Structure of Phosphate butyryltransferase:
Amino acid sequence: MKLQSLVTKATQFPEATVAVAAAEDEEVLKAVAQALQAGFGRFILYGDESVLSRLVAEHVQDVGHDAIRIVHASTNEEAAHMAVKAVHEKEASVLMKGNVPTATILKAVLNKEYGLRTGRVLSHVAVFDVPHYERPILVTDAAMNIAPDLQQKTEIIMNAVQVAKAIGIHMPKVAPLAAVEVVNPAMPATIDAAALSLMNQRGQLKDCIVDGPLALDNAISVESAQHKGIQSSVAGHADILVVPNIETGNVLYKSLVYFARAQVGAMIAGAKAPIVLTSRADSAESKLYSLALAICATNK
Ligand SMILES: CCCC(=O)SCCNC(=O)CCNC(=O)[C@H](O)C(C)(C)COP(=O)(O)OP(=O)(O)OC[C@H]1O[C@@H](n2cnc3c(N)ncnc32)[C@H](O)[C@@H]1OP(=O)(O)O
């Protein structure tokens, strides 16, 4: 399913309420305005009341004002705390990161008292529409888990599989990425990839096909996989790319956006509610796609 079609699907849930932490950001408010124009979402905006009132008047047409409530917060930390609490208390069903550092909002999400923990690993899943590439590609984890171990990688895969299902990819093909497609004991990512593949074959990782290690080119290009003579049902056909660490994922995410001009929608999965988490520099369009992705993921 292309990202634009997620926006159409999200209109089936016009009442989905989104709590936005530190919403005083033009791209965030443009995305809010676009969602309202498309016909979905109600928004509680946390942040500086006077700045928010001005920005809402500038960016949101009068007809959309009924769907917006502004709640004053004096600092980013307070805005993150209040927005997370609103989701915890079921006042909202989706959390959205505004103009606040990722670590600030994630710390609030992980708060034991009012946060959105479930006992599972929370992880970031990004869905890309890459120009001239025929199908959506999911990348995980580019933004939350810094250096996941094998157990965390299994949960990261399960979260991504849930997101894939929500956008219509059943039995996704999962490629744990490394620098090479053979197991090299000097490269820990290749050993984890091999273990994940075996866990999948033995039924420890369900509802997907995992095969790796694969380098990026063999994962996404049939020609490249054939050229190297790789025998794998995932090689050349990967739906989900599992990166070994946050640096690889973040660089891949930003390369796709800045070099390849890909469109992205991204969220944190595994929490009590989906969390819209894009880069602060991402466009309003990406934030709109992320909202649609989160709403579709919560209403699958
Ligand atoms: C791609 C576009 C967007 C971006 O560019 S984002 C930029 C890059 N991202 C970041 O800067 C965030 C990277 N991650 C972090 O900073 C940290 O891992 C994070 C999420 C803030 C957590 O850090 P801390 O609060 O220091 O956490 P900690 O490791 O001391 O753990 C505290 C408690 O939380 C738990 N926890 C941490 N990460 C978790 C996870 N993924 N899922 C579930 N639980 C998790 C952890 O087990 C610990 O629990 P407990 O207190 O022992 O019960």
